[in-house]
Write a structure and sequence with these properties.
Blueprint lengths: L10 H10 L11 H7 L3 H4 L1 E4 L3 E5 L9 E5 L11 H22 L3 E6 L15 E6 L6 H5 L9 H11 L5
Antiparallel strand pairs: 1-2, 2-3, 3-5, 4-5
Length: about 170
């Protein structure tokens, strides 16, 4: 089997930052959710929406097109740290985003997940967050199956604008 190369230079920032600092050692300093909470450059940070207790952000390193992250505004690592109002708001936002992705992108299904702790796969273990990954029939093609490579067909900028344009349609 021959080896093919797919250049993905946008991944370098993620790799370098992941190697340079252990977010468990400096949870708030290395936390992009906490930076985005304070920053007003939502388009630059791909913050799709904010609610009283939640931030909704496009994943810069998506598993699939439309991959969103929903996090509490406050830096909390465990479910038991969330108050009832925060937990309810996070779940309401999760429901809204599933509806938005269904309407805007025609998603036929979703993987929704929460990784608690580094050993469970959390890349940012200090700030819990849900992943919403839209799925379509046949979305796993030959690239991930044969070449161990994902193909994302839409830029984050274009997807961000699409979601922001239709955000008001999901109460």
């Amino acid at each position: 089997m021959s080896h093919e190369t797919l250049w993905a230079p946008w991944r370098l920032n993620y790799i370098v930052n992941a190697l340079d600092k252990d977010v468990a050692d400096a949870p708030k300093e290395g936390c992009f959710f906490c930076r985005y909470r304070e920053d007003t450059h939502d388009a630059e940070n791909y913050v799709v929406d904010r609610s009283e207790h939640s931030l909704i952000v496009l994943n810069r390193f998506p598993y699939n097109n439309g991959h969103l992250l929903i996090a509490p505004r406050e830096h909390k690592a465990a479910l038991e740290e969330l108050g009832d109002a925060e937990l309810l708001d996070l779940q309401v936002q999760l429901r809204r985003m599933v509806k938005l992705l269904s309407l805007v992108m025609g998603a036929e299904g979703f993987n929704v997940g929460l990784n608690l702790g580094r050993v469970a796969g959390a890349g940012l273990p200090g700030h819990l967050h849900w992943h919403i990954v839209p799925r379509w029939n046949g979305d796993v093609n030959f690239m991930p199956a044969i070449a161990d490579t994902k193909v994302i067909p839409q830029s984050l900028d274009a997807l961000y604008q699409l979601l922001r344009n239709d955000l008001a349609t999901v109460p």
